[in-house]
Specification:
The chain is mainly alpha-helical and 529 residues long. The protein has one domain. It has helices at 7-53, 56-77, 80-94, 100-124, 126-133, 138-149, 152-167, 172-196, 202-208, 210-228, 240-272, 274-311, 314-341, 343-347, 358-373, 377-383, 387-412, 414-440, 447-470, 474-495, 503-514. Helix 12 packs antiparallel against helix 13 (314-341) and helix 15 (358-373) runs parallel beside helix 18. The chain starts with 6 loop residues before the first helix and ends in a 15-residue tail after the last helix.
């Protein structure tokens, strides 16, 4: 019968498409993992630098000021980070990238205007903000805020170019510019500032790093855009309404997500003092290590899920979601489980007084185990076009966070902030998971995630806990547990590599090592081993 595809042929075509998406997601994940590793180590080194070379009060002022900057940067982004990925990945799936420059113009003008407005407001209101948020050191805090506010437009341009490049289907700009160059540049410039002038120069050095990143990012975006397709400059195509219908809810959601990670630092500083803010920030830096790995997987999979949704291929969406969740658990659970067993020991890296944050670290690690088991659930919901649902979920989580913080921080200090953020993390992941289940019967729980969770619990949950309970010297216990658990875990992953779809990551490493642009060593349609 002509004109109708046979069911087996359709299924074979879909399977080939799934494998192609997984191969591309694997390549992007490997690149982002490398960038995330450098980013996490650099940010961690920056935190050690700040805490070791300044007092807890000075460190608290710096961390609170950077939180204010990142909140303003999140507001200025106006949801375009998700909007650009959504519309450009959809255009790529439909073969319409000749109009990529239109989407960037629609996104960039409001972002730049808002960045400038936020910069002016922060400069003019810096004194009042300092009196609210840093009653201990209002003058220094106001100076920090002014220094960082001046560079908000540069941060806006950097974020635009990184997001647009992801929409074009490449992770290179994100990995090399945002995850590699930015943290290394910030670390180097802050270290130089301390060597030359001390802590008061650190905010200038940290925020000025966005200027060269913005210039390089814009050049890189234009080059990628023109290589993807000749740009159609004819008038008439200007989907402002469609773009902002999607992105506007995401603007508030993006701000709420940044606030959920940063606003509690500001509240701790205002309600419990800057030294408490420094200790709380140091404890939460370990959480960002796992979040960096999670972001590496999420950013790699996001455009491919966007393409699958644009095609209406929910089978491919489910396959990508479940496989990526397995990769996420493989990477993050060993870290969180180890930190739970040795929280006080690892916090001693920042100084003796920072070990007070041990319970904070344990609470947040427990919440992150649940969050990573849900996978990048909010991103899947967003790429399915449910930006209003995403906004409602994030606002609910942020409201929960702030209410609990205001209730518990005056009573429990940093422990109250940890409880607030931990509950908010659970709300932000379990609510959208329930929505996906009801709406599309879509969930991340498959063979990949279940095997990864079981391996992590046995190897990095049981062994470190047993060693920690046996030895009095927790430093030695940490080293011994890592020496035992790491090779066992590596061998276990190798044994279950097919079940976990790790062949796509291994193939990506081999491909990058050979520097080839064609096949990755497998015949077309053959799954990597």
């Amino acid at each position: 019968m002509t004109g109708v595809a046979e069911p087996d042929a359709v299924e074979a075509t879909e399977d080939a498409g799934h494998r192609s998406s997984l191969r591309r997601a694997g390549r992007g994940s490997v690149l982002n993992f490398a960038g995330s590793a450098v980013s996490a180590v650099s940010m961690f080194a920056l935190t050690i630098l700040i805490t070791r070379l300044s007092s807890t009060t000075e460190a608290g002022a710096f961390f609170a000021a950077t939180s204010v900057f990142l909140l303003a940067a999140g507001l200025s982004q106006l949801g375009t980070n998700a909007g650009l990925v959504y519309f450009l990945s959809g255009s790529r799936a439909r073969g319409e990238l000749s109009r990529a420059h239109v989407y960037m113009r629609i996104a960039s003008v409001p972002v730049l205007v808002t960045s400038v407005v936020c910069s002016v407001v922060l400069v003019l209101a810096s004194g009042q903000i300092a009196r609210w948020l840093s009653p201990d050191q209002p003058e220094r805090f106001a100076t920090f805020v002014v220094a960082m506010a001046l560079f908000l437009p540069a941060a806006g341009v950097t974020n635009l170019t990184v997001s647009a490049s992801r929409g074009l289907g490449t992770m290179s700009v994100n990995a090399l510019l945002d995850q590699l160059a930015r943290p290394l540049l910030q670390l180097g410039m802050v270290a130089l500032a301390f060597a030359v002038s001390g802590v008061d120069a650190a905010p200038w050095a940290w925020s000025a790093s966005y200027v060269p990143l913005a210039v390089l990012g814009w050049w890189w975006w234009r080059r990628l855009r023109d290589r993807s397709a000749p740009q159609d400059r004819s008038p008439g195509f200007a989907p402002w309404a469609a773009f902002w219908r999607f992105s506007s809810p995401r603007a508030l959601a993006g701000l709420a997500q940044v606030a959920m990670q940063r606003f509690d630092i500001v509240l701790v500083g205002a309600l419990a003092g800057l030294p408490a803010a420094a200790i709380y920030t140091a404890a939460t830096r370990f959480i960002t290590l796992g979040q960096a790995a999670a972001r590496a997987v999420g950013l790699s999979v996001q455009p491919h899920i966007g393409e699958a949704v644009a095609r209406g291929d929910w089978r491919a969406t489910t396959a990508l979601y479940r496989t990526a969740t397995g990769w996420l658990v493989v990477v993050t659970w060993p870290l969180y489980l180890t930190l739970m067993s040795f929280s006080g020991t690892v916090l001693g890296i920042f100084g003796g007084e920072y070990t007070e944050g041990a319970q904070v670290l344990q609470i947040l690690c427990a919440a992150m185990l649940v969050a990573t088991a849900c996978g990048m659930v909010d991103m899947v919901l967003l790429m399915a076009g449910k930006s209003l649902w995403n906004l409602g979920n994030v606002v609910l989580a942020l409201t929960t966070n702030i209410v609990i913080d205001l209730w518990l921080i005056p009573r429990l200090g940093i422990l109250g902030a940890a409880i607030g953020w931990g509950v908010a993390i659970l709300v932000a992941n379990l609510v959208p998971l329930l929505q996906l289940l009801v709406w599309r019967r879509l969930h991340p729980f498959g063979r990949e995630s279940l095997i990864a969770a079981a391996l992590s619990l046995v190897v990095f949950g049981g062994i470190p806990a047993a060693v920690a309970a046996t030895l009095d010297n927790q430093g030695y216990a940490l080293l011994i547990s890592l020496a035992i658990s790491s090779p066992i875990y590596a061998l276990s992953l190798w044994y279950f590599r097919r079940h976990l779809q790790l062949g796509y990551l291994v193939a990506a490493v081999r491909r990058r090592r050979r520097g080839r642009n064609g096949a990755i060593g497998q015949k077309q349609g053959q799954e990597p081993s």
